[in-house]
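Any chance you'd type out a single protein's sequence alongside its tokenized fold?
>
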Amino acid sequence: MNAWQRHRANLLKEGTGKGKTEKAPVVNAVGKAAALLATLFAMIVQNIADLKNTAQEDRPEVKSGLIEQYRDDMAKMLKLDDWTDNIFVFWNIVWRFDTGDIAEAWGLVKLGIEKNLTTPDEFIQAIKEFGIRQVLEHAISAVENGGIVGMTFYEVLDMLEDKDEHFATDAHLHARYLRLAAEEGEDKLPEISLAYYKKATKLHKDIHVKGKIKALEKKLGITK
């Protein structure tokens, strides 16, 4: 006998339920969750349409506003076990990448892999490849603008190097990570950079680092 059944039995025993038919309050958690998702999905579709009509230079600010607007709803999404076809979560991840919040975006990608998050039909890549490529592209952009690749880049690289089956990706993408890490470490960590370059060429022959390998070998006094 559950708590509601015990409560109802006590009422009947005391006579308070005489002549009445009491009904348990209907709490349909699944129905409420479905209704919330339907509402959020409709809002996201409208947001995407609105963003297409927003000037390019204004989009980052609009996306940042949407992230904050939906932060409480995202917290609710974290409690769901399955994110299949969840466009609300997906676009919240995209907007975080677009606005430069790489660490939080990647954290959600990792959860998405666990929770079977699927990408919309217009995206060719699965969420894993999408996230890995986004982290890499942002790292490349940071370096080109005089910055550093960032900790999230190295977190992804470590996962690729550890051969974690959840994060395994194509050889060329892995090689590009190794190349970028090697480029950043050439001055201070030439030995490690050389090892990364050599591994990159083994993973993919068209990674174009043979000249860099020769230059580092000469710098380190390595002769064949």
